[in-house]
Amino acid sequence: MAIEQSPATSQTDNLRDLLNANQYEAVTYTDGPSLIVAGAGSGKTRVLTYKIAYLLQNGWHPSQILALTFTNKAAEEMKGRIAKLVGEQRAKYLWMGTFHSIFSKILRYEASHLGFTSNFTIYDSSDSKSLIRSLIKELQLDDKTYKVNNIQSRISFAKNQLVTPATYANDSDMMRSDMNSKTPRFIEVYQLYCQRCRNSNAMDFDDLLLYTNTLFEKHPEILKTYQERFGYILVDEYQDTNRAQHLIVSKLAANHQRICVVGDDAQSIYSFRGANIDNMLMFQRQYEGCKLFKLEQNYRSTQTLVNAANSLISRNKNQIRKNVFSDGDIGKAIKLLTAYSDYDEAFAVAATMQESIRDTRDAYSDYAILYRTNAQSRTLEEALRKRAIPYKIYGGLSFYQRKEVKDILAYLRLIINPNDEESFKRIINYPARGIGETTQQKILQTAHTHAVSPLEVVKNPADFTLDINNGTAKKIQNFGSLIEQFRTLNEDKDAYVVAEQVVIASGIMQDISVDNTPENLSRKENVQELLSAINQFCEEKANAGDTELKLVDFLSEVALLTDQDKESENDKNRVTMMTVHAAKGLEFKHVFIVGLEENLFPSNMCETERELEEERRLLYVALTRAKIDCVISYAKSRFRNGQTQFSNPSRFLHDIDAKYFQTPYEDKKPEIVRSTTPTFSKFDTPPTISTPQRLKTYCAK
DNA sequence: TAACAAGACCCCGAG
DNA sequence: GGTCTTGTTA
């Protein structure tokens, strides 16, 4: 490999030319702990990339480097860039990935120490929701008081704080607050939830962090091997780590303290899932002799955009003072679109975008529309489609969440993990094989009382004195042997062959082939796509010299994938539509930020000053995604939750210094595209905070 | 047990 | 507005 043969003349020798002074210092300081405070667009990824290359240059082996990122996309991108610098062969040994994926890898190795087996299933949030739903029923709780979503987020919150059911039960504050919220039996749900997951040999997303921490806590000898393995630790987006993540990283770095974390307090936007910005703020105190590097020059955006973003974020009281600046072009002022309704807003956005594309001749992929909530995408989608602007939507229902895909995955999951109860429930009667609700309940109950997997019961119903008739017994036995058949097949065939067989022999293919409705055609397409994804996975593994083409690896990867990670060729030149959260870390030449209204952005869920500041940071993130220009829009009324709501413009519009906006009537052209709708200037409506009027809609058919 | 209709609830964000 | 759950029939 030409790139690798002569370490003396490496690509990193001319680092001084490639980096500014601060970046250079941050890259080349490797003696001890360091904190890099990196403003938006300041070349954070660049610094991390070169730092890893620099470490490899200086004798570290790739497998000694642990680099944790927040999204798969960030990990992939960084890996690609490093591969370019040091060669694919070396880059592939790096331990680089999201917290969840790296920890799940570790957990598969060490599963036995935690009472799991290495083929454990990862429950996604719909799996855990369905489990919680059945627990509420089982405990005969009132589902009006015990709301599934609420229970789920409370369990998640507890886990993120490393509060196990046992700790929870002993915490008088928690118990009292459950009393007050009329859900005193929450703890029972939590307990049973953990127990069922364990019986199912399954972990949810939060468990991946929680159990890794437990593993290192309870087994110092295991911790020691990982401490020694990872000689250098790098963590991206440290401002968004939660307690579990922080503790694990601290444990790993405790001895050698060769740790470098990068973050920007102004971009901390994940406190809702337990992220704690103090992890970053306290970092210097945690590690004595910690070096601090500040990257303040923004290379991404125009001066106008950087200054506008600065003026916004300066309204936050809690922040590390930074002087983020750009010495790029002054750039264009922000354009503000005012619309009467969400429909008009989408219309105006599409029109403005089309105009801009005509002027700039930039590609569709240079444009992004960012919104606060996924629900806003639908109207925008419609408007873009009318103008034949190609787009892609991230988030919402991802490919792997679609029914037909989940169904097949459930078969595959049950094959590799026969204890997986959620998968079992999903497919025992799909495709319909005459095993009804009552029978299912009996099977599950028997499985619980005998402490065996439901699959075990199904295989030998006679052993468990099930109260069912012979016909039903036959049916469930057939299901049992079907799965058993697949399991045998899986022992010596690769993942693709097994999956293909599942699709056919389970009857799924037949079920979605009964007619040619558009729904079924699209289902078939999705099934085909899943199969080819599995095939591709097998091929990639084979190319990498990996002979183990195991289903378990595929499932593990899939469970942690999001839509962002599955981009096909024909998705390349399209306008990106996503939430602001999803846009973190990305950049586009032209950005549209829509729905700048009170109760939407900032969110109506936001009550405290702290939460409001997080919303403001969120808008800061959105603004700083743009390289060249930015359009902001809001609507005076919006269809939400099945009714039209009127709202005021977001207070954040007034937080951004007015001089960075184009004045609404500067152009001859009116901002509003539909002539029937009244236009409003930015200052028509005072930024009063009022509860939205709720009007009944009269569009019922 | 399955197919269909009415009704509830939702919508904050992600791995 | 759409999705998911529950209730009603044959």
Give the SSE map.
Elements: H1 2-5, H2 15-18, H3 21-28, E1 34-38, H4 44-57, E2 65-69, H5 72-86, H6 88-91, E3 95-98, H7 99-110, E4 121-123, H8 125-138, H9 148-160, H10 165-170, H11 172-180, H12 186-199, E5 202-204, H13 205-218, H14 220-229, E6 232-235, H15 243-253, E7 259-263, H16 278-281, H17 283-286, E8 291-295, H18 303-313, E9 335-341, H19 342-360, E10 367-371, H20 377-386, E11 391-393, H21 403-416, H22 421-427, H23 437-450, H24 454-459, H25 470-492, H26 495-505, H27 508-511, H28 518-543, H29 551-559, E12 575-579, H30 580-583, E13 588-593, H31 609-623, E14 626-640, E15 643-646, H32 652-655, E16 694-695
Parallel strand pairs: 1-7, 1-8, 2-3, 2-6, 4-5, 6-7, 9-14, 10-12, 10-13, 11-12, 13-14
Antiparallel strand pairs: 14-15, 15-16
This protein binds a DNA duplex (15 and 10 nucleotides) through α7, α13 and α30.
Architecture overview:
With 701 residues, the chain is of the alpha/beta class. Strands 9, 10, 11, 12, 13, 14, 15 and 16 form an eight-stranded mixed β-sheet that branches. Strands 3-2-6-7-1-8 form a six-stranded parallel β-sheet, sandwiched between helices. The chain has a two-stranded parallel sheet with strand order 4-5. α15 (243-253) links the parallel β6 and β7. α4 (44-57) crosses α5 and α26 (495-505) packs antiparallel against α28. Residues 1-9 and 665-701 have low confidence and may be disordered. The structure holds a DNA duplex (15 and 10 nucleotides).
